[in-house]
Amino acid sequence: MLARIFFTCIVAGMFTISGYAFAAESTTALAIHANQFEPKQLTIPAGIKMKIVIRNQDGIPAEFESYDLSREVVVPGHGEVTIYVGPLEPGTYQFFNDFNHDMQGSIVVNPAANKGN
Asked: DSSP code of 83?
């Protein structure tokens, strides 16, 4: 009896782990070029985990920072970093370069499409 319960727990755990491994994740890119974010505004759907690859095409480092997203990461010159955000609620989330506050952008999160219609 104990062996059957143990086996059931192991199998249930495997399905739970595999569910996370195959969960939907989307990727988008953000470039740093000529001391600007490109695009200045990313648009993503609500309710999903998003992988954002930030590529710095400039030769000087930049610091991607967002109080709204609780993210702060230095992107080396001619380098790239990856951050993960979400799932996010609909709204607008600001970010900026902490080394150059004139360099700003935003992420607009749109409500998820109603799959029932």
From this structure: E
Beginning with the edge strand found earlier in the chain, give each strand of the sheet holding 91-97 in spatial order.
Answer: 41-45, 100-110, 91-97, 62-66, 71-75
Instruction: Give 4-43 pLDDT, tens digit per residue.
Output: 544 444 444 544 444 444 445 799 999 999 999 999 999 9
Q: List the domain range (segments joined by +) for residue 88.
A: 26-110
Number of alpha carbons in the 13 Å side-chain half-sphere of residue 115: 1
Whether 16 is covered by a domain: the verdict is no
Contact (CB, 8 A) for 66 and 42: no
Q: How confident is the model at residue 78 (pLDDT cuts 50, 70, 90)?
A: very high
Q: Which CATH number fits the domain that encloses residue 81?
A: 2.60.40.420
